[in-house]
Amino acid sequence: MNRAFRWLALCCLAFSTQYPAIAADKEPIVVGSVLDETGALNVYGKAMADATKLAVKSINDAGGLLGRPLKLVTYDAQSDNAKYTSYANQLALRDHASVIMGGITSASREAIRPVADRNKTLYFYNEQYEGGVCDKNVFLTGIVPSQQIAPLVDWAIKNGKKKFYVVAADYNYGHISTDWVKQYVTKAGGSVVGAEFIPLDVSEFSSVISKLQEAKPDVVLSLLVGGNHIAFYRQFASAGLSSRMQIVSATFGLGNEQVVLGPKEASGIVVAFPYVQEDSSEDNRKFRAAWTKAYGANYPYITDSAAAVWNGWHLWALAVTKAGSTDREKVIKALESGVSFDGPSGKVTVDGPTHHVVQNVHIARANENHGFTVIGEEKSVPPSYEQSVCDLVARPNTAKQFTPSAKAN
Amino acid sequence: MRLIGCAVVALVALALGFAMPEFATFQATNWALFGLLAVSLTLVWGHGGIFSFGQGAFFGIGAYAYSVAAMNILPVTNETVSSVVVAALAAAALAALVGYFIFYGNVGDVYVGIITLAMTLVLFTVLSSTADPKYHIGEAQLGGYNGISGVPPITLPFGESGTTLTVVQSYSTVILVCASIVAGLYVLLHRPFGRVLTALRQNELRTQLLAFDVRFRKLVVFTIGGAIAGIAGAFYAAWAMFISPVVFGLALAAQVVIWVLVGGRASFAGAFIGTLLVQSLSFALGGGAGDATPIVLGVVLIAVVLFLPSGIVPALARFLVAKRTSGSAGSAAADASVPQEQRFAELPFRSESGGATLSATGLEKRFGGVRAVQTATVSFGQKGVHCLIGPNGAGKSTFFNLLVGRFPPNRGAIELDGRPITHMNSHDRVRNGLGIKLQVASIFTELPVRENLWLAAYGRRRDEAVADLRSAEMLDWLALAHRADDSAGSLSHGQKQWLEIGMVMAAEPSVVLLDEPTAGMTREETARMAAMVRLLGQSVSVIVVEHDMEFVRALDVPVTVFHQGNVFASGSLEELRRDERILDIYLGRQGHGHVA
Amino acid sequence: MEASSLGWFLNMAVSVGLSIAILVLVSLGLSVLFGMMGIINLAHGEFLMFGAFGTLAGVRGGLPLPVAMLVSTLAVAVFGWIVERALIRFLYGRLMDSMLATWGLSLIMSQGAVFVFGATTQGIATPGGSIYLGGYSVSAYSVVLILAALSLLAFVYAVFTRTKYGVMARAAVQRPQMASAVGIDPRHINSLTFMFGAALAGAAGALLAPMVGVMPTMGEAYIARAFMTVVVGGSGVLTGTAAASALLGGVENVVSYLFTPFLGQAALLVLAICLVRVLPTGISGRLRRKL
């Protein structure tokens, strides 16, 4: 019996820590964010979390929404996927958030999605990913391959480089993006002479570098992700290949690779992102001023993911204002009607049927100062693949992720 | 008793499920499932002594199996209960396979941890690469790193397309499943299986020498542990409606170990408490501690190791429950007595075995370049005592170990009662009638004296009632009845030797092998041992390896002398004492037709 | 320049040699602790990470690279001594507890590094440029690393056979009671041994820093493989580590080259499982080598 009472006491103790100090006040609008601020993904998560706080603050400074301030509840998922399910549920059921923004890896997004859907809480995923998600309850502001790969490939072909070798991270994003690369390269008149998939925890690339030297491509298209993969660029440069092969990448810079690498290792790498910190637009200048004021001048780099988060919050805020309410159905309808936001990367517009965004894509080259130099821009690039498979206005009951190979077969 | 406690806790938890707000119930379901996963490790490690780093793998297999099965079966049967069963079976099958690989390959402790860790990492690597749409099982895309989304929650086969359980209903189901499993485990551990398991964990060799198939038992425990983890995994996938390869990672594998260590290694209550504490701590921290979360967790872990090394539940137990006197300080010093001689008129019970012949033919054993035993040929009669003597390094111990089955001979054969046992392992030999007492008393020091004898009797008869009877008879005969409930480790050295003899006898052997049974005994004890051995020799064959010449003389039985790995001579002690060559051997002299 | 078969062969040799060298470097420290003290140090990757960051700090402070590496290694050694005195010395003989405590330590160390250095830090470029081997170019630093690994093995051998500490440490491992009976203080030896193991981990991190991206979480990628190498190698610190690294590293590299890196990883894991099954005391145990 002692044992039972001990159990009881401990259970009560543990559960009591979960009862909220009831912030039951109806005044503020509660909004939620779940990101990885500690653990292996903190490289991505930190800038995104900072952008979250800044975005909510800027909305509040401008008077809030519908006359009410936003109350931000954030959770750190500690790079632990299981926590995403828990925290998303918490935000929906305990905190009664009007919107959940969060998730970094696609796995974390897929963990949040069913919870958000079941609890009927609106969900924004603000991060570059492999594309194809089609879910009435979800909006995605990150860039997708159908927007990003084409400009990148076009730049290479235009500059006379037709033989591509793809080096990709060995997981969904890497594989799907590689399929896109093959499609676009062929369409643009080039050829893919090889593709190598590297598991995420590999940091030693000598066998890949050997194969590159045998295949002799003009351009290496990198879809490498994560801290361990930074070593590729370092080892590529130290093997003396920088002068012989051009690197273009859809992922270089997301994890501050250009900060970690030295000027000789990084410079020359060409990337394509909606947001590049060095962009000289007026909106970006204001954005950077606000960021510097909040986080200091020594901030490593404002990543594209951070900008996507910023866009996400403001798009939602605009939709709420347009709908005149935080009710999920109304906000979704407002978003689908084509809300537009002039952000630091240029004009960002929600594409109603696909729940993705039409946005600008900047081509940039890594420079000698741990940053990038903008060398080109494509305006208002639509998510073409998503538009071809997903129409949530006509078919609102869809809730899945489309992938190109499935479609092709 | 424990089952009642279990039921009470389950009822309280169920009640809480209805009282708590829904978000808390949802989260509690997760913690209960992780607790069940921890229970699987507690069973396998705390009770089975197997350090498995791979419980996360069985959890993951269960989760994936459920997901794949549910996505395929649900449209057909409108329920997912069958998918849970599929998950349990899949996890159990993997555990059985891996367990066979490990236990029948005689892999040692730490290495079991490594193999199970490597197995889980292999699964992680494999499942992470299933991103391509061609990797699908029926309707379910494996999804690679992104995992499987849209996993159906638990659905019962009522209504048109099945009824999905609500959050509270799922929680209640999980609580009931956990309680049933834990209750089942309590029952299992209370039965002979559990008692043998406890013994196995403490002294694997002695357990084997009591005719228990240690490898098979470990395999059974490991498989059950795998099945439990698989069930937890199935419910987990249903809870999150999502599963990804991350469950096969190092992080979860380590976390399970942490939960069990924090709660108390052998306690099922501890499994839940440890999980609850660690997980709720990291959950709470993620909501407010910001960057400091890993640091706080790290400090807590270190604090637990340094200040609560056996875990929280045992510490609480020591604190809250009065100590039971386990017969140490008080009675130990007082009574080191041994059985009186007059008891050796007859054996404690009528044994069914009537002795058997044991013969060794041409045995040879080499270790590297050294031939410890060379062409040894000896025959022992069906009844009676026989001594093996010889100076140090003569090969007696190696010969003994060959008879025991410690290792196979390089050449030669051994027959027990006419049947060849040359390549049988020890526990099979014991099952066939060999009784073995080792030089260093190998008993279960942490179990009560009574339990030691019970296990020995059960090893032979496999009948609880008979074992109860036999052990009681043995206790009386050994005059250890007053120490029956004391732990065997608290006995004096001589008493331990007696206990071990008693255990050997309780197993009703037909041939008894004794390795230096009087080592460390007083003269009185030695005399009594001689009387006991003579008594035994009247009904079965007893082979004694000895150094103590007083003892050998007191026995007055045929003697075989070993020298440099060979059988040198046989005969009565009187005859041999007159043989100069024997003196040579013992004194290290040359001459007298000495055989090299 | 056309690739010649000699060039291909040399290139492969360097590539395989590099994989093996990295495993040796990363596993040596862990092997010392496991083989000589029976401790499983799950914070091993974090000691490595500290060595890498220390080198970065040294270079940024103006020290030449080799000096920075040396200073960093010594700093990690000192840190190792502190950890041993404060934590590890309570855990000898408690295998599972040492795992739990060092796991906690690893959490503290890696988050601590984030606090001090931030999640993103500027790194150091690989020194040395590239060398041409018949149509292939390889990083000169790869060769340096291979030589460094060999030197480190030789150094460890020298320490254990030629120095007073080394002989005492081996005695204390083989016969602890006898060792203390002849006046060897096991606590003192244990402190030194842990320091040595930590220093080796730090040295590995220092040597790897110019080749990879140095981040607070870089240790995670190495711990599992270091672990397997140590267990496959057995308790003989040198023989075991060298043999296991050669086998596992070589196989992984060759399979990665012939097929895909994923299969290379899988091959390493499967091979490790098979070897542990077949050689339960490791390669050095089978070869009856104590060192």
UniProtKB/TrEMBL annotation, chain A:
Signal sequence interval, chain numbering: 1-23
Q: Which domain of life is it from?
A: Bacteria
Provide the alphabetized UniProt keywords: Signal
Where do the Leucine-binding protein domain residues begin and end? 28-369
InterPro entries, per database record: Leu-bd, Peripla_BP_I
- Family label: Belongs to the leucine-binding protein family.
- State the name under which the record lists this protein: Urea ABC transporter
**What is this organism's lineage?**
Bacteria, Pseudomonadati, Pseudomonadota, Betaproteobacteria, Burkholderiales
